[in-house]
Amino acid sequence: MPGPPKKIRRRDGRAGSGASNQNPVSGKEFNYILQLTEEDLRLLKRYKDVLAQGAAGFAETTYNYLFDNPDIADVMYAYERQGGNLGQLVRRQLEHMLGLLEGDVSQETTGHIDELGREHYKWGMKTIWSLGAYRLYLDHLHQLVATDEQIEPDDRSNLDSALTKAVFRGLGVSNEAYWRALVEGLTEQRDELNNENTLAGEILGNIPQMLWTVNVETNRVSYASPGTQDFCGDELEAPIPCFHLIHTSDRERLLTAWEQVIDGSTISLEVRLASGENDNLWFRIAYYPVANRRGRVLRVHCLMEDVTDRHLDRERLEQLSTRDAVTGLANRALWYDRLSSALAVAQRNPGASVAVMLLDINQFKMYNDSLGHEAGDELLRQIAGRLTRVLRATDTLARLGGDEFGIVLPMVQNAEKAAERIATEAMSCLSAPFSYEGKELCVSSAIGIAVFPQHGSDAHSLVSHADSAMYRAKWNSVPYLFYQSESPESATDHLQFSGQLHGALERNEFELLYQPKIDLSSGRVCGAEALLRWQHPQEGQVLPHRFIQVAEQLGMITPITDWVLDTALQQSRDWIVGDQPLQISVNVSARSFQSPGLVERIEKVLRKTGVAGSNLEVEVTESTLMADLEGGIAVLKQLRKLGVSIAIDDFGTGCFSMSSLKYLPVDTLKIDNSFLTDLSANPEDAAIVRSIIELGHSLGCKVVAEGVEQEKVSKQLLELGCDLGQGFYISKPLSQDSFNEWLDNR
Ligand code: C2E
Ligand code: MG
Ligand code: MG
Questions:
Q1: Whose CA is nearest to atom 35 of ligand 1?
Q2: CATH classification at residue 396
Q3: Which domain holds residue 371?
Q4: Nearest to residue 254, comparing CAs of 238, 234, 276, 270?
Q5: Average pLDDT of the residues in 312-322
Q6: Which residues contact 331 (CB under 8 A, 6 or more apart)?
Q7: Neighbouring residues of 509: CB distance < 8 A, sequence distance ≥ 6
Q8: 307 lies in the same domain as 331
Q9: Is the CB–ligand 1 distance for residue 733 below 6 Å?
Q10: Distances (CA, A) of 627 to 404, 619, 622, 647
Q11: 487 lines ligand 1 (CB under 6 A)
């Protein structure tokens, strides 16, 4: 990392060239400066004894003088309290004075005074205090020189001068020692600080966090760690370095935060960087303001660190906890959350309503089982994509699990109307075929709707009501239904049914009815369709649309189909029309059709009942075949080999394309009865019926119209070229005995 510019760096603050670089003043230097000559030294030596008079008393006086001053006395007492020996200090001072008189400039004497100076420094004694002592001493000596008779009158003047020089010298050495001790102390402290600074520098230069300090008064960056300068560049913007790198949508937030920091708040926030390669980086910036005692912020320490990984982890976690992994839509938890918020808002706004919609994909399980989970997931994604396009940005679409989607329409003035519109659009957007690996897949859906406040006031009851409406829509084979408080076929029914359906076979509760098919032009009976009924112990006769799907979900459909095949073939053995045994049609639902071993089981039943394959017709729906066209074709071909005929039931309601029909070994197309209800009044229906008939004939199939309720419809169908008819006009589905009678009467 390149080093920071000098103007900012504070780490290496070495003091300028100062006293510490100078050598100690030598004795020779002192002598030269004070002009202390050999002659002076000789003179001092000669009168040494005279001058030593009263030296001891003088030293005492000096210290007494010092103790007279309360400030000085305090320091002296503290010195003694902490183990210092004042007597020794006095003695050393005395020895030094005497040494001066001898003109002794040896190391030993200067060593003494050096120590003395250090001691003074250490205990906080001011240099100026020695100044007073020396002045007293000099006075005392001058007095001696002027008055003592042992001194030759001619020497007095020179001796005075030598004494002045010697006393100054002592003072100089003492002060020099004092200051040297001071400088050494400071140098030691400075070295310690330097060491700490170097360490701090090493740490700051190597940590991934960036640190800087802003001087609030000058609005300048007063310190920036090497990492900060490396990242933001040498020219640091104040007060927020690299502000230009911050994502534009986060800048406002950052500036607001800075204002709060200046007011004294400690703040931490996350921002995105947005420039070139740094596009996906997230940073946490923390501001720590430092204020004076009056609360005025003087500087702000700032820390910035890369939290991209943490951020991504958090996002991923959030995604996991609120999103559905397959479709990327909201999951159940988030959906409930949005629903609760929408309800809270609506409760505060009179007149506002919220719609809750549950959408279940009818054929999803079949695709999932036959094509595999990957195909199932892909189908769910495509469904999610289409549904999303139907909704507003404020609506919430979620995958609640399996093939169930949830929709919340918040804050709509007329939720019922809005939900109805969405339901219709959802239905139509799902009606176009989906594609997976070149295969066309068709799905339909059932939607249940509950509206706040009409159908409930809390999320739980609205969802449970939408759920029962959805089940009702399913059982009634309608695309959507609103919740009805007294709905007989609610979700609870479904659960109850599930339990009771188990064992229905063993308890012999199933029964078959037979509905004849006739040739529309001759009126000849050509066959009968076996239709299943469940004699429910409490409810009486239950129609197949209420239990077939439940049976499929419970995995009970295969034994039921086997029972139907077995019963229908056995019961039909006596039915001969002309010389021919009557052909019996059996409905095979998607699950049964796809279950392995269907062909083998049919073969077994034919053998067991002794019925020829040509006397059996299997009815399958378009969507059953579309789920796995290739697999379906293979099954149909095997059935053909057994002589069994194949009919496509409810034709026209699925999404068969001409191209796929071409490959199917099919004998019969059964026009769905929904096209017949309005046949005479609705020219469009007539056109559809006509084209189905033409299509069937072009493929070499017979065409059957089911749900013929009136004579005029029967006639119209005949005119359109339809071959066979089945419906209440001809006969309702009949029990075995009634069917026998019906045949006899014919
Ligand atoms: P589907 O195979 O299309 O059967 C024709 C349905 O139309 C029957 O309803 C029949 O009773 C009804 N129907 C016949 N003529 C008329 C008419 O003139 N007007 C009206 N409105 N309806 C008429 P059902 O028996 O309730 O069966 C409903 C569906 O349940 C059948 O539709 C079939 O898909 C399924 N199903 C019936 N029996 C079985 C079975 O044994 N196994 C399986 N897997 N499904 C079955
Ligand atoms: Mg049928
Ligand atoms: Mg049908």
A1: 544
A2: 3.30.70.270
A3: 327-485
A4: 270
A5: 83
A6: 321, 322, 323, 324, 398, 399, 400
A7: 534, 535, 536, 537
A8: no
A9: yes
A10: 19, 16, 9, 17
A11: no
Smallest Cα–Cα separation from 721: which of 550, 521, 438? Answer: 521
Residue 360 confidence (pLDDT) above 50: yes
Structure tokens at 459: 């999320």
What CATH number corresponds to the domain at position 222?
Answer: 3.30.450.20
* Band (107; pLDDT cuts 50, 70, 90): low
pLDDT above 90 (res 628) = no
Residue 121 has which token pair? Answer: 């420094």
Decide: helix, strand or coil at residue 182: helix
Tell me: the pLDDT tens digits for 640-680? 999 999 999 988 876 666 667 778 899 999 999 888 988 88
In the chain, how many domains are there? 4
Q: Amino acid identity of 55? A: A
Binding site membership of 543 for ligand 1 (Cβ less than 6 Å): yes
What CA–CA distance (Å, rounded) separates 84 from 61?
20
Q: Give yes or no for residue 617 CB within 6 A of ligand 1.
A: no
Q: Please, is 9 exposed, middle or buried when counting C-beta atoms within 10 Å of its C-beta (0-12, 13-18, 19+)?
A: middle
State the pTM of this model: 0.52
Residue of 288 and 67 predicted with greater confidence: 288
State the chain's mean pLDDT as an integer.
86
Of 123, 153, 187, at which residue does a domain stop?
187
**Of 675, 684, 668, 669, which is closest to residue 713 (Cα–Cα)?**
675
pLDDT tens digits for 147-197? 999 999 999 999 999 989 988 887 887 788 888 888 888 999 999 999 999
Residue whose entry in the numeric block shows the structure tokens 């519109």: 421
The verdict on 294 and 443 lying in the same domain is no
Supply the Cα-derived Rg of the chain in whole angstroms. Answer: 54
Taking CA atoms only, the protein residue closest to ligand 1 atom 15 is: 727
* Gap from CA of 546 to ligand 1 centroid (Å): 12
Closest ligand to 729 CA?
A: 1
In this structure, is residue 34 part of a structural domain? Answer: yes
One domain for residues 306 and 344: no
Same domain, 519 and 653: yes
Task: Please give the residue that has the higher pLDDT: either 49 or 374.
Answer: 374
Three-state SS letters, 645-688? EEEEEEECCCCCCHHHHHCCCCCEEEECHHHCCCCCCCHHHHHH
Judged against a pLDDT cut of 90, whether residue 482 lies above it is answered with: yes
Beta-bridge mates of residue 330: 323, 398
Is the domain of 235 the same as that of 104?
no
Give 3-state DSSP helix, strand, coil % of the chain, rounded to 5: 55, 20, 25
pLDDT band for position 50 (50/70/90)?
Answer: confident
Asked if the structure places residue 131 within a domain, the reply is yes
**For residue 589, how far is its CA from the centre of ligand 3 (angstroms)?**
12
pLDDT band at 220 (very low <50, low <70, confident <90, very high): very high
pLDDT at 490 over 80: no
Q: Is there an atom of ligand 1 within 6 Å of 673 CB?
A: yes
- Do residues 304 and 333 share a domain? no
Q: Is the pLDDT of residue 605 over 60?
A: yes
